[in-house]
Write a structure and sequence with these properties.
The chain is 8% helix and 43% strand. The chain is mainly beta.
Amino acid sequence: MAGSVGKDIVTDGIVLYFDPANTKSYTSGSTTCNDIFKTDPSVNGVLTNGVSVDTSDDIPSFVFDGVNDYIEMDEFSFSGTQITVSVWNFGETVSKSQCVFEAGTAAINTKRCIALLIPWSDSTVYFDAGNALVNFYYDRISKSATVAECNGWHHWVFTKDSATGNQRIYHDGSLWHSGTGNSIPLVSGDRSSVGRFSGGGLGYYQQGKISQLIVYNKELSASEVLQNYNATKDRFI
């Protein structure tokens, strides 16, 4: 598995793929991780404040302590009408504010293009998607989550198509929540990170493990989400 991209996953539209199990993405002992697909050769991530890679359970994953660990990414710019962010996340708590992935601007920390909060301290999963160049200009869908839905290994997929207004969250291969009328276009800025949310100028950090973070410049269909889940689930569950 360490030398593969992921058997039978959807590859069309991938613009970023971090996977600590793939030697093209991460080599043992390194403080950086690299985009497997190299859509933008400059994009990589710096393991910051002690992020480690756990291989003890045969599921290589980035480990975040929930205090200040995160992966700082090079500028990762995208715009358009569609996006999908897919991730395998191992949650450890639902009682603290956490963020799996964020893209926005460094100028004003409340400007966000993408924020995936799994979950926030109110046990709610939030999916914000919009224009990072305009303050508080984003669409949001959210849903209260149970401990069982968050803790342990779970496959989360977030999609948005601003042309149709559809915004969706999938959990373990099935549609979990959705919203309509969400037409704010996707415009990113100059800051992105894995495991940290910088809203309000503060830092909120993921506690647990993250593996196989994939960003697409298209909206995956329900059948494609299920395809990816079935293609990778044996590794995690």
